[in-house]
Amino acid sequence: MDKIVPAFQVTLFDPTLSDACADMAELGIDSLLDDGIFKSLPIVSVLVGLGKTAQNIHDRNLLKQSAQFINTFNTKTISQAALDKHRNKLNNNPKFAEEELGRVVILLNSNVETKKSELLGKFYRAYVLEEIDWELFCEFAEITSKLFVSDLKLLSEIFSDVVTNTTQCQGYRAERLISLGLIDSAPKSISIGNIGSSMTQNYIRVNELGKQFCEIIQKTE
């Protein structure tokens, strides 16, 4: 981590590298490693090593997830002033930088789906823009790590009031979103079966935490 975090920081906050990071996110890992231009990126250089290739599956995954995260972070316009302010904050407190970016790197390397790294990039951008604080970023990051990517569609439908109760969706998916703290539920009806079994249908809605979560991941230019 001693070398990875500084390399990650430079790659993330250097505006001259944003185009290369965007190209990097669109390529497969093998193409990325074969093309010498990407080895000039600090994070690639550290993980690949001089004259070597990233054969370690963890390094390859971190490269893929980092590319998606950085590309998402830079997708929307962030003023140079905002970037400089946060970069200076990190430069002036190396211990804080290690804690903050080290956490991000660990989260990225634990991801399997690049969609989760995309979401993390959106939350980190909101954090750098001071739309959310560090505590809420960490909460959203924890939720994202436990989230089933396949449940995002249902979350969006609940957020937009397309789905308002569990008769309109698969109940177990709603239960997963409830367990993450993104939606609330209230009893709608109870049906009693012939053998005494019962089934409860619930109203469901996005709560305040879920609303913030959805607003950030759905925000457009």
Structural class: mainly alpha
Shape: elongated
Strand tally is: 2
Mean pLDDT: 85
- Rg over CA atoms, rounded to whole Å, is 20 Å
Overall tally of domains: 2
Low-confidence stretches: none
The number of helical segments is 12
Quote the distance from N terminus to C terminus: 34 Å
| Sheet with the most strands: spatial strand order | 1-2
Counting copies of identical and different chains, the oligomeric state is: single chain
Strand fraction band?
A: 5-15%
Helix content class: 55-70%
The description of the largest β-sheet is: 2 strands, antiparallel
Strand-and-helix sequence, N→C? HHHHHHHHHHHEEH
What attributes characterize this protein structure?
about 220 residues; mainly alpha; 2 domains; 12 helices; about 60% helix; elongated
Report on the structure:
The chain starts with a helix and ends with a helix. By secondary structure, the chain is mainly α. The longest helix has 17 residues, at 57-73. It folds into 2 domains: 4-145, no CATH class; 150-218, no CATH class. Helix 1 (4-13) packs antiparallel against helix 4 (42-48) and helix 8 (114-128) runs antiparallel to helix 9 (134-146). It has helices spanning 4-13, 18-26, 29-34, 42-48, 57-73, 80-91, 94-110, 114-128, 134-146, 152-159, 171-179, 208-218; strands at 183-192, 198-206. The chain has a two-stranded antiparallel sheet. The chain contains 12 helices and 2 strands. The model has no long low-confidence stretch (mean pLDDT 85).
Give a summary of the structure in a few sentences:
By secondary structure, the protein is mainly alpha-helical.
